[in-house]
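Render this sequence as a predicted structure.
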Amino acid sequence: MGLLQQRCTGYPLYVLSLLEAAGTLTLMVYALLCEAGNLVDLPDKCIGFYNFCLWNETAGELQCLDYKHLQAMGISLPEIVLARVCVYTCLVFSIFYPLFVVNVQRTEQREGWKMILIILFIQMIILSGGLGMFLLQTSQWIHPSDFTGGFLALLGTQALLLLQILTATMYLSWVKHTDKCQRPFTEKVLPTEI
């Protein structure tokens, strides 16, 4: 009975990995495409990866600032651009990641799962780094209560990436354990010369 349980454990981990990848992609698409990268989208301010709009009291409307004004306010343009590149690169990884998981599962390559783990760590680092750089540059104008759906979706993406790392680690552990248990009779152990 234990052998049957060991054989059946890998498939649910694979399906869980795909579901987590779908959730990650959905949250990234929502945050970066549907919300247009806006982390704060309130009537009096709209701050995101592509816009920086604050309420102008004299005009009585939301005024979007261009790069010259942002630099005058002390916001580093190269850091904002790098933050944008990091976060949107994570979206590109999320688009192609499920295809890579399916390919690795079909070919049953253990090294492929190690690569999946590396890709997940890279996604985690670039998303955290990009979001952190952006928040450090704009923290003066953003209060924790200002964050809206785009920011929450990126936090959810971080949580799902952590779950994917855990799932891939469990899968690698399962594969390592089943390799020892299911293959006791290899050519090295039992040479078959006739």
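Summary. DSSP finds five helices and four strands in the chain. Residues 1-6, 180-186 have pLDDT under 50 and may be disordered.
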